[in-house]
Amino acid sequence: MFNTTEEYLEALRNEMKDADPALLQDAQADAREHFSTALAVVRDAKPDLNEADVLKTIIEEYGSPEETAAAYREVERRTSPALKQPVKSQSAFGRFLGVYVDPRAWGALLYMFIAFVTGVFYFTWAVTGISVSVSFLIFIFGFPFALLFLLSVRGLALLEGRLVEALLGVRMPRRPLFSHQGMKWFDRLKALLTDKATWLMLVYMIAQFILGTIYFALIVTVLSISLSFAAIPVLQEVFQQGAMFNGGVRFFFPVWSYPLLVAGGFFLWTLFMNIVRGIGQLHGRFAKMLLVSE
Amino acid sequence: MTDVSAQIKKFQKELNSGTSALVLLSVLSRSKEALYGYQIAKMLEESSPEFPMMKQGTLYPVLRSLEENGLLESTVEPSVSGPPRRYYMITSDGRSALEEWLGIWKQTKKFIDTILKG
What we know:
- The structure holds 2 protein chains of 2 kinds.
- Chain A is mainly alpha-helical.
- Chain A has helices spanning 5-15, 21-45, 51-62, 65-78, 92-97, 103-136, 142-168, 185-194, 196-238, 258-291; strands spanning 244-246, 249-251.
- Chain A contains 10 helices and 2 strands.
- Chain A has a two-stranded antiparallel ribbon.
- The longest helix of chain A has 43 residues, at 196-238.
- The two termini of chain A are 24 Å apart.
- By secondary structure, chain B is mainly α.
- In chain B, 25% of the residues are buried.
- Classes of the chains: A mainly alpha, B mainly alpha.
């Protein structure tokens, strides 16, 4: 039997070790909330009861780790993932063009755009938070300030996880990491500082700035090159301007090359969309590694 | 003859997995205020004190999946004693889903009763 919440959560972790870590994190957060709420309610009603006995009963009524794990797995099986897998087309060419009807590719493209904005914000928040927290530590109010900052990092990590799940289709936590209730705030600060998860989240927030910038530059570059290729016939025929420059002199592309130029632009963008889908999957895995605690 | 109680448990579990969403939606539709997980578990326990119908831990994943599907919404609020709690409320989508589910449930119940009577 289990005497403490921690023992139960540990058993639940063992039971769900093959499950998605994000699902385990949700299950643990629910169990922790239930136990501490139940304990607080019983404590208010009958303060003279032995706390350890009360907890034992609560855990008994909650169900064994096997039952709980089975319930989560069952519900997860029935809940469809955020982005459904598209129907696989047979030929390689069909698969290549199929990227346009794949919601994951469009989701990844949108995510890469957004990553530029969120990356700048995360970076500013992390760097400002760290430096202000550290310098405030010489004052007494520096400690609660650092605590607030670290809690905000957890909140942002949850938010980023929701974004990653919605746009990249990677299962991420849907509940915040349980915070340590009933602790003095100084102990909470210490627990947050010694938790690997906090630091990994900060690393993610800083890395997002670099990645977001690269993603944005990539999209803008490839989009403008592809569009330029496709626009050459328009430029030459409608505006009567040669599209090729050589030593300050404009040259015209021959008319027979128009279909090739347009097809080339289209090919380049399609190729890029395929790459974007891959980058999205990689980024999803990266986010899972840093934002979901073991 | 092998392990009758395991068979009973399995049957109960399979029944519950079909009905728990209906039960939770109906509890939340009748409540005027938002409820948190432990409150709901206690209410269910009181309606069947001699025989616990389901383990409390199995409610949470169902609550979460109902929320995921837009039938419930939730807010986290601090409590006077103890940790912050997640309060669940039924949405208008949830109410219309419940209405349809109740229709299906009544038909199913009638069908089973007819079969069992023979």
